[in-house]
Amino acid sequence: MKILASLSVILALSAPAAQATVVGFDDLIGGGTVADGYGGINWGGDWSYFDAPQNPYNPSSPNTRIYTTGNASSGSFSFASDVVFGGAYISGFGFEVIFELFLNGSSVAVINSIFPSNVATLVGSGYSGLIDEVRVSTAASEGYFVLDDVTYSVSPVPVPAALPLMLLALGGLGLAARRRKG
User: Under 8 Å CB-to-CB from 122, ≥6 apart: which residues?
Assistant: First the structure.
């Protein structure tokens, strides 16, 4: 039993942890279209940014935030690899905004009934599975909302050194079992 506990500790310590990435847009100055690849995200021309004060479109962190290009009622962004979407801050007018999470073209989670106000509010995804695209839409004909501090984590990839550690631990288990029999 002690060996199994030791093995669990070794494997837990050797497993990489996911690092959260927060895309805050604060280095974007003025206004314009968010470039593909910014913050590790493909924006697809759907998102623009601005840094001038404008209530109720208040950022979570100073000063820049994004909105759907042309105030469209929907926009999407995607990732080059599968990620865990943590959420984003939203502010704007008080109508429903829906976040839909996708993996390989299939919807895997929907976050709805978010009614933005002039206070930037965190909309956590509540979904811990992998996704590769986020679609944001409103029930209104025009998208009067802004996003800030988009957060995601890249799924951890096993470290190559973990395999030899695991084999060493399994070998130790085999030796211990052999000693008990003999």
Answer: 60, 87, 88, 89, 149
Q: State pTM to two decimals.
A: 0.77
In 116-158 the beta strands, taken as DSSP E runs, fall at: 121-124, 131-138, 145-154
SS3 category, 3: helix
Q: Which of 25, 96, 97, 94 is nearest to 61 (CA)?
A: 25
* Nearest residue to 114 via CA among 104, 124, 105: 124
Cα(42)–Cα(77) distance, rounded to whole angstroms? Answer: 6
Tokens 């009614």 belong to which residue?
Answer: 115
Q: How far is the CA of 122 from the CAs of 83, 103, 119, 133, 154, in angstroms?
A: 18, 22, 10, 19, 20
Encode pLDDT of 20-70 as tens digits.
999 999 999 999 999 999 999 999 999 999 999 999 999 999 999 999 998
- Residue carrying structure tokens 């497993």: 15
Which of 20, 18, 22, 21 has the alpha carbon at shortest distance from 148?
A: 22
- Give the closest residue to 131 by CA, choosing from 41, 16, 47, 17: 41
Lowest-confidence segment of 6-10, 90-94, 134-138 by average pLDDT: 6-10
Cross-strand partners of 112: none
Chain centre distance of CA 67: 18
